[in-house]
Design a protein that fits this description.
By secondary structure, the chain is mainly α. The chain is built from 24 helices and 8 strands.
Length: 529
Amino acid sequence: MTISDFSQSGDQLAVINPANLMPLPAPYDKLDKPIKALTPEQRSRMDASLDGISILGLAPPASHEEERAFIEKFLAGLAKLFTSGDNWTFLQPLVHSLDYCVKCQICSDMCPAYVASGREEIYRPTMRPEILRRIIGKYIKKSHPLLRKFRGTDIDLNWQTLARLGELAYRCTLCRRCAQVCPLGVDNALISREIRKLFSQQMGIAPKEIHEKGTVQQLKVGSSTGMTPPALTDILEFIEEEIEEKTGKKIKIPVDKKGADILLLHNAGEFIAWPENLEAFAILFDAAGIDWTLSSEIAGYDAVNYGVWYDDVQFARIALLHAQAAKNLGVKKISLGECGHAHKAMIVIADRILTRDLNIPRESSIPLMEEIVMSGKIKLDPSRNDFPVTLHDPCNMVRLMGIVEPQRRILRKIAPQFREMTPHGVENYCCGGGSGFAVTQSTNFPDWRSSISGRMKLKQTLEAFGDVPSPEIKKYVCAPCSNCKGQYRELFNYYGVWEKSGIFYGGLVELIVNAMTDLKKPFIQWEWH
């Protein structure tokens, strides 16, 4: 397969064969099944000529005129990527990454999706940038045809090329492990993200789960989950009742408390899917005497900001609402709950737009948890966590932000059987659900996610517990990120990991609360969900 094949209509470029995928340890070594094929009806209305998968659901143009308009719109958006007025977020690193890659391929073996796929050529991390680079050379920089021919960098631009490029941008989890090893600082994941941005902002094309059901819904009703402020009130009442039932403690979760020290900006998906995470925060903060609050304003109670994966405008709208909610309450700082992409969005990228009185201090909750644990304010008994525990490093917290040791110091203190994955820290592998993959349920994409993008993480997690394979021995993978937990749930369900290996997943704060000596019963209940 060569880049020129991208412009050829007809055959599917890559066919995923389960026999070629990276092997998994027993008893998972014989469980792979073919990725579900699209139905003939789906094939008739959406392009899947890249690899048989469709996340965008692009319909082929009905006429030559439609195809021409599609291409012209793409080229207009491509030109905007290289103007400072339109690309106020990533212009400089984008230009650097396109200009300085020497195609040494060091990054290829660092990409978990590429390796797990059996080194399928289309998933090579340099593939998307090279296609984009050739389009830029021919249509934006307008390099001479003889020069392109001499360099072998020509490309035909048609609807098929762009449809495949758009899909290919969503075969990268944006984990940036490739950028980690590049000696020149080239960030191929950023290029994937900028291709997504072009498709979204200029052409109105993005996965429904991320855009319509994600950012648009969050801006409209307050949360990507669809949770409205009145629904938040009901859920918090339920969580307070759960806390009392589990611990005997009557704790009132503070909402809209003016002048609190901390606004806890939490992923609202936790409130519904894993309410025990917020329960644990409430128990821990109450015991430690932390002055904190939640917000009930639109978007103020949901740290989610899917725009960081695909669209600067959507990102900015949500980041401003988050900051405004904190300003309205007059809190001293924002603390991000266990959500990796929310860390990236609010602590790192939001620096580009939050100025003056909206530039409110923003921190991760992980160091705060460490401070509480190490301060001696609460009494902890590590024997309550005397079961095998390993740690998943969310890419955005660890590789991007360098929050590496606080969570480890906590686990060494409260979990006697803590063991590291290999590799770990800034070299750890993505869960496979990054950049919106964990919430994407369209067509046959979940099969691809479990079979390929999450495959390395599954292998790594199983190997971390290789000395205790029996499902009778309950094990805990600590994943302090809502998105990663969603991916673990899907991945483990796909392969039956809970039944076969007894591996449970959960957050960090739950382990801390489970070790608190003033709780009569264990907080972690080992109920699969």
